[in-house]
Hints:
Helix 1 runs antiparallel to helix 2 (37-44) and helix 1 (6-33) runs parallel beside helix 4 (61-102). The chain is mainly α. Helices cover 81% and strands 0% of the residues. The protein contains 4 helices and no strands. It has helices spanning 6-33, 37-44, 52-56, 61-102. Residues 1-9 have low confidence and may be disordered.
Amino acid sequence: MISIRNNDVNTFAEEETIKQIQNWIDSLKIALLESNSQKAFELTQNLPFHSEYFLQNSNNQIFTEYLDIAKELIAQCITLLQNNQEETRIQLDKIRQMRKFLS
């Protein structure tokens, strides 16, 4: 029978949680660099900070740093979405002006 110490389980859980968070951050950075607002929005709706291990260790310095990074990236996503919204509004105004001109 294999005996697993609590420390080993915690280390594995922490490594897996960190890996998930890093993958999420990398994916969000790529979406922002590509100005892919749809992908950025989807990622902000699926935050990786919900694991039981994270919730139990949320005062951990590493996790606090990841939360700060996530906060900054989400702020950039909001800016990207606001810019896209403004561009869409401008395009709609142009379409309305064109319709008015043609009628």
